[in-house]
Write a structure and sequence with these properties.
It is a single chain. The protein has helices at about 1-10, 10-30, 30-50, 50-65, 75-90, 95-110, 115-130, 135-150, 155-170, 175-190. The protein is an all-alpha fold. Helix 2 (about 10-30) packs antiparallel against helix 3 (about 30-50) and helix 4 runs antiparallel to helix 5. The protein is built from 10 helices and no strands. The radius of gyration is 17 Å and the shape is globular.
Length: about 190
């Protein structure tokens, strides 16, 4: 848990270090479920550091551990999303989108609102980068709906920053400024 907290708090290298310690202990104990979750989480840490191949390796190992076991679907979805963003970053976008869309389906079936919103946001980023602007906007708007319902200022700040970049990319500078200001408002609320 400390590794995830460090990752989410911006201490990515420390988070990976802590998750690596947990990984070693979990391999010894044989706790496959927690090992798979740890690998999926560390995969995202590697992604944050632009170490996409290491992230891909962790995500694939996590997927191999969980297989299609019904009680491990939340971990499967985490690993699929992690693999998807890493694949996209390795210029394998079609494969990455497929993984992220599978993850989204699983998160929605589990009524996992925070991970559903995060996955929509990832889809928005990827669609924007591929030029599919209609799909990007749709994904961003869905993420916004979830984050507003959750009243999560940290995630809304991050989302509005991404949306501001999106509107800037479209050349809609007034909307980009408005969106960036909205993000700034939520960043201040988040502390």
């Amino acid at each position: 848990l400390q590794g995830v907290t460090a990752l989410m708090g911006g201490q990515v290298r420390r988070g990976i270090e802590l998750l690596s310690q947990a990984e070693s202990a979990l391999r010894i104990s044989g706790d496959r479920k927690r090992l798979a979750r740890t690998l999926a989480r560390r995969s995202m840490g590697y992604y944050f550091l632009s170490n996409y191949q290491e992230g891909l390796n962790d995500a694939e190992e996590a997927l191999a551990i969980v297989g299609n076991e019904s009680d491990l679907q939340s971990i499967r979805a985490l690993a699929l999303r992690a693999r998807g963003v890493c694949l996209h970053s390795l210029d394998r976008t079609t494969e990455g989108l497929n993984d992220i869309e599978q993850a989204l389906d699983i998160f929605q079936s589990l009524d996992d609102i925070p991970n559903t919103a995060t996955t929509y946001q990832e889809l928005g980023i990827i669609h924007r980068s591929t030029g599919d602007l209609e799909s990007a906007q749709s994904a961003y708007m869905k993420a916004e709906g979830f984050w507003r319902a959750e009243n999560n200022p940290y995630r809304l700040a991050d989302l509005f920053n991404n949306m501001g970049v999106f509107y800037h990319h479209l050349g809609d500078y007034d909307l980009a400024v408005t969106t960036f200001n909205e993000g700034l408002k939520y960043a201040r609320l988040a502390g």
